[in-house]
Write a structure and sequence with these properties.
About 40% of the residues lie in helices and about 20% in strands. By secondary structure, the chain is α/β, with parallel strands linked by helices. The protein folds into three domains: about 25-50 and about 190-285, Rossmann fold; about 55-185, Rossmann fold, CATH 3.40.50; about 285-390, Arc Repressor Mutant, subunit A (Orthogonal Bundle). Strand 12 (about 285-290) and strand 13 (about 295-300) form a beta hairpin. Helix 9 (about 215-225) packs parallel to helix 11.
């Protein structure tokens, strides 16, 4: 036993990953398994909730017609918007015996690549892009092309899931003949239940971050929230306690336009997105407090104590957060009744919440919290008054670590 009567701390466990103790929603349609693996490697609990799916055109007659138009006469400019779309276009052309002719036409044109993935796909075919924007945005592509004399020019635009009237319209307005090449389209996921559940968890505060890898995924998530009457609540959650991590500015545009702060990597890559989130999320959502000679770090659904990650259920965690807001001070049972989370109904929409918890529920949550922490004395009972977090005294003038979090 130590001098203070506490049992000695056990050996520290394996290193705790930067995202351990946090729940992260994944809305990606493509490469969702890769993104989930990268997050899990850093300790995150992944909540899969595909928002969209990639649907090939049901009838490729329109794609075949556009490809024949491209092959039929020289092209002046070609806009390649996505790597997967460009590869699918060439595969479809190959199926109709037009691949070589198409590649020859592309080689004679000025190719604009909207981003690094598009550039990689172009170079894989032995072609070379003439220019690529820094932002990966269509507006920058349009500005670049409008600097040229487009009167009578033939411009092919490979679409990526939806038509871009602002792009094609601007080019036609400058006198260009525009061939829109529809390769695939995005559609809402067939089963919205996981996404609906994720929205409910974000609003309830049991998810710490949501990742978005495409603008259609953002739109689909907001649409599902709106159908359940939760769009405003979801946006407010992402403004306050849920981190919105977007792979780039194009993906983030709708959210930033609605005053939602976003985490974005310097490069639009999944690995860079995960690294950015692993840096930002603990800074925003973790808080350290000195308790009984140890450092207690609060994370999303867990704590780190004595170097070990200890998962904590939602109700005990709500109690702990309330106590941590006023470390060392007594918080009454009546106050703690108000912080216990309401149960959501089976539809995940937060309706029919149960009545306010009673003091017996608080006592049960405190007992579970103590078991979860695994060390006595951290949560103290103050007879007839309530509970308090047993924080170590600090030297005068020194703030608590993470006091702003």
């Amino acid at each position: 036993m130590s001098a203070g009567g506490e049992p000695p701390a056990g050996p520290a466990g394996p290193p705790v990953g930067p995202l351990a103790g946090f729940a992260v929603g994944v809305t990606a349609a493509r490469r969702h398994e890769e993104l989930a693996m990268l997050l899990e490697r850093r300790g995150a609990r992944v909540v899969p909730a595909p928002a969209i799916r990639l649907a090939p055109l049901a009838d490729d007659a329109e794609l075949l017609e556009a490809t024949r138009a491209c092959v039929g006469a020289p092209l002046d400019h070609v806009v390649v918007t996505t790597g997967i779309g460009f590869r699918a276009w060439l595969e479809a052309a190959d199926g109709h015996g037009l691949r070589d002719a198409l590649v020859a036409r592309l080689a004679g044109a000025e190719i604009v690549a909207r981003g690094p993935k598009a550039r990689g796909a172009i170079r894989a075919e032995g072609l070379r892009e003439a220019w690529a924007p820094e932002s990966e945005g269509c507006a920058e592509v349009v500005r670049h092309l409008l600097e040229r004399d487009l009167a009578g020019a033939r411009v092919a635009v490979q679409l990526y899931g939806e038509r871009r009237p602002e792009l094609a319209g601007a080019l036609r307005g400058a006198g260009a003949g525009v061939i829109e090449v529809p390769v695939y389209r995005w559609s809402r996921t067939g089963d919205p239940t996981p996404l609906r559940r994720l929205v409910g968890q974000a609003v309830a505060g049991t998810v710490d971050a949501i990742t978005f890898t495409s603008a259609p995924a953002v739109a689909a998530t907001l649409a599902v929230a709106a159908e359940d009457g939760l769009e405003d609540a979801l946006l407010e959650a992402m403004r306050t306690h849920v981190v919105a991590a977007c792979v780039g500015p194009v993906t983030a545009r709708v959210l930033t336009g609605r005053d939602v702060p976003t985490v974005q990597p310097e490069r639009a890559r999944l690995g860079a997105l995960v690294r950015a989130l692993a840096t930002d999320l603990p800074r925003r959502r973790a808080r350290r407090l000195p308790v009984r000679g140890s450092s207690l770090e609060l994370r999303g659904h867990a704590v780190v104590l004595d170097g070990r990650l200890r998962p904590i259920a939602p109700a005990p965690m709500a109690i702990l957060r309330a106590l941590a807001r006023r470390p060392g001070h007594v918080v009454s049972r009546a106050e703690l009744c108000g912080v216990l989370p309401s149960r959501l109904t089976g539809d995940g929409r937060g309706r029919n919440a149960r009545p306010r918890a009673d003091e017996h529920a608080v006592e049960m949550a405190v007992a579970r919290l103590r078991r979860g922490l695994g060390r006595p004395g951290i949560v103290e009972t103050v007879v007839k008054r309530g509970y308090r977090l047993a924080c170590d005294p600090r030297p005068a003038g020194r703030p608590a670590a993470g006091a702003g979090g």
